[in-house]
Amino acid sequence: MASPFNVDVVSPEGTLWSGDAEFLVARTTEGEIGILAGHEPLMAALSAGPVLIDHDGDQRTTIAVHGGFMQVVENRVTLLTDRARITAGDRAEAAAEALKLSEGDPLDFEE
Amino acid sequence: MASAELRIIRRRIASVSATRKITRAMELIAASRIVKAQQRVLQSRPYVSSLIEVISNVGRDAGGSGHLLSEVRDVSTVGIVVISSDRGLAGAYNSNLIRMAERAIGHHTLEGRDTRLFVIGKKAQSYLRFRGYRIDQTFLGLTDRPDYGHARAVANLVIESYVSGEVDAVEVFYTDYRSVLYQIPTRVELLPVQPPTDADAQEGRSVSYSYEPSAEEILSRILPRYVEAAIFGFLLESSASEHASRQRAMKAATDNAAELTKVLTRVANQARQAEITTEISEIVGGAEALMASDR
Questions:
Q1: B241-268 per-position pLDDT tens digit
Q2: Chain B nearest C-alpha distance from A23 (Å)
Q3: A5-99 has which fold?
Q4: Which residue in B46, B53, B217 is closest to A45 by CB distance?
Q5: Which chain B positions have a beta carbon within 8 Å of A46's beta carbon?
Q6: What stretches in chain A show pLDDT beneath 50?
Q7: pTM, entire model
Q8: Quick check: ipTM above 0.90?
Q9: Which residues have C-beta within 8 Å of that of residue B186, sequence separation ≥ 6?
Q10: Which CATH class is domain B4-26+250-289?
């Protein structure tokens, strides 16, 4: 089993997911990236898409992310996202969910 | 048969205790909302502190490369954001904040700077409009339960005015929530973004990152997010403060109503007693008169 590293998925509404993970996949503006323990320090801008977190051996959590940033420092991954949702389904569903999140910004309540 | 005086007092007692029931209900509602609002303030904090950590790390690593939103200019126009509430009945919550903002506007005018007003909440809007200030934009209906979309709308407007050069600095007036009993009106300089100093970062370690796509690109993406998150924080703090102020104001009103009922009941009893005494003395007087005429 791969050695774990710490992951926090943080949004303005609260901490969405926090725990130890063995493997993480996220979509940056440049393309998909996989993170294992001991990754070099990285700062990446995320685009809308699914984030996959493998943890506790065989568990997989998929999170639909609207965009944001990923910081990797000293075996600690922080995902900062202004909108995100944990999705139950597989990767494709998470991707669809992420697209839905990025549609329809609720900006139409001004006077 | 009750006299006119007694009837009027009884009516007042009924009206005061009806009011007491209303203020008591409002007090309870506000109290339950404080808890929720407080939780949301706490939940939003990790996001903001992580953002600050990232900005200061990137800033340090990328050699503090200047960005549009952190560029300091000569200030000729100041954008003023006032976060008040839509509803009153919250004690001095709105008036304290609005007075503070108005003083700042006066100060800027004295120094020869123009101001642009971005107003959140009906209370500040009606006050400032009545005083003849020109309001550039009003946001209504978001102070009760602010969500991130609201913050983003305000942030977009503020950033747009700053980037287009319409304003050269932005100040925010909001009410800082310290505890249930203590909230203070606060002024914050939001733009230009002051690069967080090392003291603000959790630890002053220097990290050399690899960037995707590049440090400048990330900084230019993250600063608007920071402005949004900051405004979201101000909205949440203000909302928690509003509920706390309202709870306190309504508690005072409830207590006053209870006190008033007590006093009025005493007066009513006195009136009732006086009436009975009068009746008895009338009866006794009548009987005396009858006895005198019988003799």
A1: 999 999 999 999 999 999 999 999 999 9
A2: 19
A3: ATP Synthase; domain 1 (2.60.15)
A4: B217
A5: none
A6: 105-111
A7: 0.82
A8: no
A9: B173, B174, B175, B176
A10: mainly alpha
